[in-house]
Amino acid sequence: MNTEAPKQTSDGRLGDFLAEIEAVVGAKAILTAAEDLAPHLQEMRGLYLGDAPCVIKPASTEEVAAVVEICAKYEMAVVPQGGNTGLVGGGIPITSDKAIVLSLSRMNAIREIDATNYTMTVEAGCILQNIQAAADNADRLFPLSLGAEGTCQIGGNLSTNAGGINVLRYGNARDLVLGLEVVLPDGQIWHGLRGLRKDNTGYDMKHLFVGGEGTLGIITAAVLKLFAKPRDKVTAFAAVPNPAAAVELLGRCRTLSGEAVSSFEIIPRISIDSSVKHIAGVTDPLEQPHDWYVLVDLVAGIEDGSLSETMMTILSEAFEEELVLDATVAASEAQAAALWRIREAMVEAQKHEGGSIKHDVSVPISRVPEFLERAMAAVSERIPGIRPVPFGHIGDGNIHFNLSQPVGADKAAYLARWDEMNEIVHDIVVELGGSISAEHGIGRLKVQSNAHYKSTVEIEMMKKIKAALDPAGIMNPHKVVD
């Protein structure tokens, strides 16, 4: 434990609390120095800065349970944290709370790979990329894939029901887990690590914790689904006349490929321009500029050339019907990586264009074109010169509807209108039967918005579940449901 004295809590018992914690996890697993705390107290976008007397890093589920039991005894809130790559402040303690950060980073073991059962049992602190690699080494696929996969941890992925680029084929994180091990708010351990596809013995408890953002308990381990590893992949980058054509093309791809589409992303021209301008190594793959593009991956279990023929057939027919204006198909893994680099670079490129107001929304796929048309018109009417940057997983209806500031605008003044822009966009989303949070979660950022847009019945059900499992309110307070 660091020698720098941590801030005292209001009841003056912090010394006793830390002594009991140290007896469980050891001195080295408790951080109290300001420089050690800092990385755990700031959200990656810089929207939230928290405060906590310490960060505790247990090494086992039993240690997590003991720490939580001690926290309950001292009425100390627990804010679970994985790789701290979240985008809604869910892993940051609120300054006014008496709370500690509980980091799962030391719990990073892959406990078992059962290739025959197509499952892998992992601890919550495992980095997503390492899980992908372990599955690959077992000749299997773990398909969850997102931009932060080199640092995010599976416990956080499950707690936020992460999405990513392969949801269309394989589902969200919720669809990729069979069993959980969870430490409950009173320190009990739920041993639910079952590798079963069928278990019809009552309520499916794991779904309370997947997407619960640590407000009901702490995921310490999980049984994950594995899949057969694709032997062939074909990547295409195509210009389309508008989002409606993109949705029509998606349907053609799914039908003609026999549901072989693993990713289907929409990209606006503004993202191509900013990525080429600001990110080294990014180039425009087509000769002429167009307003809209899609990035498509098809996968198959056998490499016999038929997948490439399928992609060419799809594009040829779409070109004849003017659903596609131009296209290129990657001839190698390197070319495919270059096309995906465009998609990955867009997020970084936006940072160079000034203030960006973010939205992570979803609507039914059939209503994506209507959403984009209405939302882009509405925000442009409210702020002339605003630059909408809508992109993302159109294949599952999830659009990252980001809004770059007008050229030359004052960044601080623009970002001060965040709530105003959110209301405009979210009103349209909800009217179209959509969600104000598609894959990033609620955290701190959207607690009030969630209460506004969800029905009273839904909010009351969530509060009752929270009260039943966490009556003292110590698990990640003021997140998801307040």
UniProtKB/TrEMBL annotation:
Keywords: FAD, Flavoprotein
UniProt xrefs under InterPro entries: FAD-bd_oxidored_4_C (IPR004113), FAD-bd_PCMH (IPR016166), FAD-bd_PCMH-like_sf (IPR036318), FAD-bd_PCMH_sub1 (IPR016167), FAD-bd_PCMH_sub2 (IPR016169), FAD-linked_Oxase-like_C (IPR016164), FAD-oxidored/transferase_4 (IPR051264), Oxid_FAD_bind_N (IPR006094)
Domain FAD-binding PCMH-type: 48-229
Entry similarity comment: Belongs to the FAD-binding oxidoreductase/transferase type 4 family.
GO terms for MF: catalytic activity; FAD binding
Gene3D superfamilies: 3.30.465.10, 3.30.70.2190, 3.30.70.2740, Uridine Diphospho-n-acetylenolpyruvylglucosamine Reductase, domain 2, Vanillyl-alcohol Oxidase, Chain A, domain 4
Nucleus found in the keyword field: no
Name listed for the protein in its UniProt record: FAD-binding oxidoreductase
PROSITE patterns: FAD_PCMH
Alphabetical GO biological process terms: respiratory electron transport chain
Flavoprotein found in the keyword field: yes
Species for this entry: Denitrobaculum tricleocarpae
Cofactor field: FAD
